[in-house]
Task: inverse folding
């Protein structure tokens, strides 16, 4: 069948099952926008290319399917680099298509020309520059395969304008041939057996669960593992929901702002079992002091992660679901590995830490914490959780509000938490929430954002309004770049340099209304619940709620940067508790 390169690209996307495309047209990609008119693919017109990338990420994180974005050349391509880097750090499968100048103009500094494949080489799993329209169907198939297999991640296809305009005899792609690209298969049996031996001998084991468990859809296997062994669980920022927070053996989130019980259990354990985590510096603190007395079992699909930060006694290169299943099978045959008596004293100690050092704040548990007019941000998150359906998806920006959301929400299911972990991208929440709602339209989607983050990408609420995507945004408005202010307060002698934002400029209610949203403002703690319920009742447009929160509030616990996790700072009300 005769097709243009542009038609072949859209047909190839349809063949891959793409239902939604987030994009913004421009000169170099313009030929591809014509066949979209006749396609089954829904195109969502964003207001900035970064928003297209983050929306694709939100879609991918909640559905497990690749998100797709398409932008033009030059500034369109460079604007989406942040989203590519974000997806690369957090192993999120997205496919980005960028327009490019004609192949005859590449290298001439043509209008809106940049070396897109060169710029994005370090923040994609792989990228392709298509120079022959006959390669389109094959390259699209390769791109989706690479994005979604092994350790997931972003890929990019650079698509010159003359390739889009060329006419070809379209053919379906044949069998993929990707020499050098190898995906980990089943776990090595000897490594699994060695891991089970360590589990059977450990007296103070703890699980360090990372985002790889969610990427592998291994939550059921993880729950079975915990049921077999009785080993306490910690879930990282990227693994919230992999194991329910309400379970007794769940100690919480480890890391710089993690739960005291989780951080301390890892420090004191004699066996650290890592499933799909990469020993990030925000979890390890000072590396040489991290879990110094522990042997390590490290399961990861990416061979490069094994031993990168901490050399394990047993490394298992495999998909987490397959690896945990294999461990479960062997543990079921090994009574010593299932012995609760051996670790009973340790578990009791962990649960004591959990009981004595919960996440807390001044005025916790009251209907109106703090002074009138000074809403505690943690209270807003707790009320959101209390007043929304259990299956609600929570999205967060980056900063203090992100940590409060991770600490106080109470997660039940995997793929219910969307945030920017590794790159820490301010402005992530609004477009990612849009993508999440598009991916799961039947679920309520709330984004907890900061006033600093919100101002970076709020224009995407115009996208949400025009496309009738009813996301809900809670701005924890403390009039500061909150996390930076906290560091300046604690480590720079309260010298506040360039962090004040003003609570009233802009007027968030008027701004929301100008973008076609419902805008609400809450200044009294007693009105928090009513505002949330009012927002929950709106289903035909986005809602923005400006919660005026306490600007002096700090995130606790906290491990100072560069310090040992043993130096964790707890909330002042817990400082006198024995550790």
Result:
């Amino acid at each position: 069948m005769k097709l243009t390169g542009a038609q072949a690209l859209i047909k190839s996307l349809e063949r891959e099952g793409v239902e939604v495309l987030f994009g913004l047209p421009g000169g170099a990609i313009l030929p591809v926008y014509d066949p979209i008119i006749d396609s089954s693919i829904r195109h969502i017109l964003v207001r900035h290319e970064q928003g297209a990338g983050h929306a694709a990420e939100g879609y991918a994180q909640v559905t497990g399917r690749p998100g797709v974005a398409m932008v033009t050349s030059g500034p369109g391509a460079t604007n989406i680099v942040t989203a590519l880097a974000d997806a690369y750090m957090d192993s999120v499968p997205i496919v980005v298509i960028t327009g490019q100048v004609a192949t005859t103009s590449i290298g001439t500094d043509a209008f809106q020309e940049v070396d897109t494949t060169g710029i994005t080489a370090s923040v994609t799993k792989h990228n392709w520059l298509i120079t022959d329209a006959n390669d389109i169907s094959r390259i699209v198939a390769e791109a989706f395969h690479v994005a979604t297999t092994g350790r997931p991640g972003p890929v990019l296809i650079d698509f010159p304008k003359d390739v889009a305009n060329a006419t070809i005899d379209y053919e379906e792609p044949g069998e993929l041939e990707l020499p050098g690209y190898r995906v980990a298969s089943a776990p090595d049996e000897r490594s699994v057996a060695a891991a089970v031996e360590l589990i059977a001998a450990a007296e103070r084991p703890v699980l360090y669960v990372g985002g790889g468990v969610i990427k592998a859809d291994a939550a059921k296997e993880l729950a079975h593992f915990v049921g077999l062994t009785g080993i306490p669980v910690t879930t990282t920022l990227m693994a919230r929901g992999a194991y329910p927070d309400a379970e007794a053996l769940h100690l919480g989130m480890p890391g710089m702002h993690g739960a005291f019980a989780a951080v301390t259990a890892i420090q004191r354990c004699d066996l650290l079992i890592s499933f799909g985590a990469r020993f990030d510096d925000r979890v390890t603190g000072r590396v040489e002091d991290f879990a110094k007395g522990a042997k390590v079992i490290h399961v990861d699909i990416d061979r490069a992660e094994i031993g990168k930060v901490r050399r394990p006694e047993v490394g298992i290169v495999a998909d987490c679901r397959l690896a945990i299943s294999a461990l479960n099978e062997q543990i079921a045959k090994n009574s010593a590995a299932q012995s609760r008596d051996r670790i009973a004293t340790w578990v009791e100690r962990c649960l004591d830490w959990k009981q004595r050092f919960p996440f807390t704040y001044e005025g916790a548990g009251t209907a109106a914490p703090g002074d009138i007019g000074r809403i505690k941000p943690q209270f807003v998150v707790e009320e959101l959780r209390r007043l929304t359906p259990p299956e609600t998806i929570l999205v967060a920006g980056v900063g203090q509000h992100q940590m409060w959301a991770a600490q106080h929400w109470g997660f039940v299911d995997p793929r219910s938490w969307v945030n920017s972990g590794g790159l820490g991208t301010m402005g992530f929440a609004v477009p990612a929430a849009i993508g999440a709602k598009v991916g799961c339209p039947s679920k309520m989607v709330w984004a907890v954002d900061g006033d600093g983050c919100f101002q970076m990408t709020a224009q995407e609420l115009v996208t949400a309004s025009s496309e009738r995507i009813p996301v809900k945004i809670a701005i924890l408005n403390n009039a500061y770049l909150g996390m930076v202010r906290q560091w300046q307060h604690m480590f720079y002698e309260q010298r506040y340099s360039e962090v004040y934002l003003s609570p009233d400029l802009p007027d968030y209610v008027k701004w929301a209304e100008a973008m076609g949203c419902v805008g609400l403002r809450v200044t009294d703690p007693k009105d928090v619940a009513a505002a949330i319920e009012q927002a929950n009742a709106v289903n035909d447009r986005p809602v923005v709620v400006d919660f005026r929160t306490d600007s002096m509030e700090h995130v606790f616990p906290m491990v100072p940067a560069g310090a040992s996790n043993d130096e964790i700072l707890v909330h002042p009300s817990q400082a006198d508790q024995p550790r």
